[in-house]
Amino acid sequence: MREAIELDRDTIYMAEKVERV
Question: Per its UniProt entry, which superkingdom is the organism in (predicted)?
Answer without folding.
Answer: Eukaryota
